[in-house]
Amino acid sequence: MKPFSYLEPDSLDEALDLLGRHGDDAKVIAGGTALVNFMKNDLVEPRFVIGLRRLKHLQAMTEDNGLRIGALTTLRTLETSPTVAGYAPLLAQACRLVATVRIRMMATLGGAIAYADPALDTPPALMACDASFTVQSRREARTVPAYQFFTGILETVLAPDELVTEIVVPRQPTGCRTAYIKFLPATHDDYATVSVAARVAVADGKVVDARIALGAVGATAVRAAAAEELLAGKEPNAANFRDAAQAATADLEPLKDIRGSPDYKRKMAAVHVVRALQAATTAPHP
Ligand SMILES: Cc1cc2nc3c(=O)[nH]c(=O)nc-3n(C[C@H](O)[C@H](O)[C@H](O)COP(=O)(O)OP(=O)(O)OC[C@H]3O[C@@H](n4cnc5c(N)ncnc54)[C@H](O)[C@@H]3O)c2cc1C
């Protein structure tokens, strides 16, 4: 590991100043579960590491026009919070399936989305919750919808001087039920082979609202808007779920890796879209 200077700002303003000054040469560190591995393996070599742990308000959740989750909130807090269970059960379901509890005690939601590995569990759940992210720099603050944030493998819309400060999740509409399915290789604490987040509302025997998003099926998590449209107004039955799965997976370009070939992942994605829709539509009402 190359030597670096460790800086620990006391306020968000100070952190943004430091990023404005050193952005190209700096990395912020939140839980460190991804960054430390990258640094140990010389995959990133920042001259400055900016620790965020003194920014206590970024570890808090507030209810104000949706649930505003500070970027430093850990995945363990999210999986156990009754407030998150009420607003966005999908997010809690996805966090519960990330790695081990030791990782979830350290890993933060802001760190996960900035990391942007395509197989992470939280991005598809956030997309299916209609979440958006507040991104701040000295220049501006902006809001980015979850489905527009990820641009490639480990790539996002973040500029070097920008921080994710909060993740905003609207309250789940009445009548919605959800399922997050993570299809894993051999061990329960691995990254997904494919994952599917589904949120569905049914009224009078017809689907009235659907959100479907997939993870580990390409360079980024993706929202399956065509499948959502196809389901609207249809009966929630196996044939319609299979049509939705076909629409959700037709254009996917999964990456070949140790978890499988692109063809295998595309097939598994279709199988798990059907399963997620079945699970969501038969789950007890919250
Ligand atoms: C053994 C292991 C198993 C794992 N298994 C899974 C799994 O099954 N499912 C899953 O979803 N994930 C898994 N992960 C990944 C884990 O979720 C991420 O490492 C974690 O969420 C990153 O959060 P962090 O707070 O530790 O980020 P850090 O490691 O601190 O930072 C990650 C990156 O984000 C940047 N960053 C951090 N916070 C911000 C911010 N607020 N604004 C802008 N940039 C920021 C950092 O500069 C760095 O580039 C696993 C990780 C490990 C080590």
Structure description:
This protein is α+β, with helices and mostly antiparallel strands. It folds into two domains: 5-169, Uridine Diphospho-n-acetylenolpyruvylglucosamine Reductase, domain 3 (2-Layer Sandwich); 176-282, 2-Layer Sandwich (Enolase-like, domain 1). Helices cover 35% and strands 24% of the residues. It contains twelve helices and 14 strands. The chain has helices spanning 12-22, 35-40, 75-80, 82-87, 89-96, 101-106, 109-115, 122-128, 146-149, 225-231, 238-249, 262-282, and strands at residues 5-7, 26-29, 48-51, 61-63, 67-70, 132-136, 141-145, 150-152, 155-156, 163-169, 176-183, 194-203, 206-215, 222-223. Strands 4-5-10-6-7 form a five-stranded antiparallel β-sheet. Strands 11-12-13-14 form a four-stranded antiparallel β-sheet. Strands 1-3-2 form a three-stranded parallel β-sheet, covered by helices on one side. A hairpin with a 2-residue loop joins strand 12 and strand 13 (206-215). Helix 5 packs antiparallel against helix 8 (122-128), helix 10 (225-231) runs antiparallel to helix 11 (238-249) and helix 11 (238-249) packs antiparallel against helix 12. The longest helix has 21 residues, at 262-282. It is globular, with a radius of gyration of 19 Å. The relative contact order is 0.12. The model has no long low-confidence stretch (mean pLDDT 96). Flavin-adenine dinucleotide binds next to strand 2, helix 6, helix 7 and strand 10.
